[in-house]
Amino acid sequence: MEGGVPEADISAFRECLGLSRKNPYVLRLAFSAGIGGLLFGYDTGVISGALLYIRDDFKDVDKKTWLQEAIVSTALAGAIIGASVGGWMNDRFGRKVSILVADALFFIGAVIMAAAPSSIVLIVGRVFVGLGVGMASMASPLYISEASPTRVRGALVSLNSFLITGGQFLSYLINLAFTKAPGTWRWMLGVAALPAVVQIVLMFFLPESPRWLYRKGRGDEGEMILRKIYQPEDVEAEINALKESVALELKEAESSGNISIVTLFKTKSVRRGLYAGMGLQIFQQFVGINTVMYYSPTIVQLAGFASNQTALLLSLITAGLNAFGSILSIYFIDKTGRKKLALISLCGVVLSLILLTVTFRQTETHSPFISKVETYHFNNGTCPGYGKAVDQSKWDCMKCLKASPECGFCADGSDKLLPGACLASTDYTKNECHNGHRAWYTRGCPSKFGWLALVGLGLYIIFFSPGMGTVPWVVNSEIYPLRYRGVCGGIASTTVWVSNLIVTQTFLTLTEAIGTAWTFMLFGCVAVVAIIFVLICVPETKGVPMEEVEEMLNQRAMHFRFWEKESAATKGNGGV
């Protein structure tokens, strides 16, 4: 672009805030489409608390780790399909229609889950919700990105990320609100039907993406919308740039024919964009964020907090920090830049995961011992593995819980860190333990280091949310040429959900196989690799008009000196 890339500094953030006064129409578009992000966040977050009570109602879920993972991960499997179909649907029928279809799937899934008589029906409902999540994950940020002025595009797409984390925070509040209500988890899962209905109503009164309209030959409609979005002094330049971009893409489309995977990877700008976009989405998941969000109450219990309500309350803090981090990202995404923000975020994530690794290792190796006297105080309630052990003196709480899913630990009534009882995990022994004013543990053990685990989780979220929580979605919404944007967005969204599925489906199994500590260490090693990837492969798109991102990708593949501004000369010769 002549004159270089426009500076995206603190004034961009102020301009975004000023939209409520200058141009409320843009904010209305962003908030209405962003409800899809709210639903996305709610449906991915609510299961973490609901799972605690689903285990109480469905005993097959309580006894089988794979069934718990299936309830969480089948939504992700649905999201993979939703994202794959959503890419085609976004290009074929438009961003608005895709959002409406996602809402319908949210509604159907919520109703099925709320009425589920068994774990199998519950899983079916989770699949429907997953389909909606997959479509919304790409349609909402894409719609917002294409309906936003260039200068505040990053901040408004970050608004979608904020609504995702806000939905997760809301899910924890709803979980807490219904802990004492009859049906507990049914209410938790069914509430998602309400915002879906609200968005369906709002989207009927909103226009289609102006860029999609231009692409489909409906330029007059697109121009009318652009005149509402941009200031009068900017709108003509934007219309001309968009017309040129669409004309060029249509010319390329005529010469290259239908879009195929081969075509995508033969096109230099698309290939480089996919490397960056897909890579960011993969690393976003493999540093472990959704294990924290999906299983945070379980992780809190692993840290030594036994009560379901306590675990939910402490997890609410985690969700609140996640939402707060998303607010920070709205400020920093256009001030600091996408690449630098991602790097700062990943460095903090590495430090946080090191703290979590050390803390959980201490928790695992310093758990309370088993008291033979305390154990046999409960008639016919002894854990079978402990009863058959040759040397019971070496048993501690962690060994008791790992012996079998059928075993639990009843802590000493006066001091949880004193030797307790290793018992069979039945409703009878659990009630007997509680009747003695003791705490009952089946996930983790009492520990004096439990508070450090909460600090580690909090730091992890604070570092992750403003950077890696937002940057991948922003970059993927703006890095692809218009002709390929729907397809590439679908590929990137499918990538994130496949990665999410792998991590979520294996987390509990990993914690049982190698321990919680080494699981977090594994995530930390992935975060180090992610830092190297961002340094080498991710371009800076801060302040670059969407029509010029393609040119930037054609000119350079890598930019190591992310802290330096890109000069016009460097742009011209291709850089590093």
Supply the key terms.
single chain; 576 residues; mainly alpha; three-stranded antiparallel sheet; 3 strands; disordered N terminus; disordered C terminus; transmembrane; Myo-inositol_Transporter
Query: Beta-strand level of the residues, as a percent range?
Result: under 5%
Helical content band: over 70%
Largest sheet: 3 strands, antiparallel
Straight-line N-to-C gap? 19 Å
Give the overall silhouette. elongated
Oligomeric organization of the protein chains: single chain
H-E order: HHHHHHHHHHHHHHHHHHHHEEHEHHHHHH
Cross-sheet strand order for the largest sheet: 2-1-3
Poorly predicted runs are 1-11, 562-576
Provide a count of the helices. 27
Overall pLDDT, averaged? 79
Number of strands: 3
Q: Report Rg.
A: 25 Å
Coarse structural class: mainly alpha
Domain Major facilitator superfamily (MFS) profile: 29-542
Membrane topology: Multi-pass membrane protein
Keywords: Membrane, Symport, Transmembrane, Transmembrane helix, Transport
Organism: Lupinus luteus
List the helices and strands and how they pair.
Layout: H1 10-22, H2 24-57, H3 59-63, H4 65-93, H5 95-114, H6 119-146, H7 153-177, H8 185-190, H9 193-203, H10 210-215, H11 219-229, H12 232-256, H13 261-266, H14 268-286, H15 289-302, H16 308-332, H17 338-365, H18 372-376, H19 384-388, H20 397-403, E1 407-410, E2 421-424, H21 427-435, E3 440-441, H22 450-464, H23 471-478, H24 485-513, H25 516-537, H26 546-555, H27 568-573
Antiparallel strand pairs: 1-2, 1-3
Helix pairs in contact: 1-2, 2-4, 2-6, 2-7, 2-9, 2-15, 4-5, 4-6, 4-24, 5-6, 5-9, 6-7, 6-23, 6-24, 7-16, 7-23, 11-12, 14-23, 14-24, 14-25, 14-26, 15-16, 16-22, 17-22, 17-25, 24-25
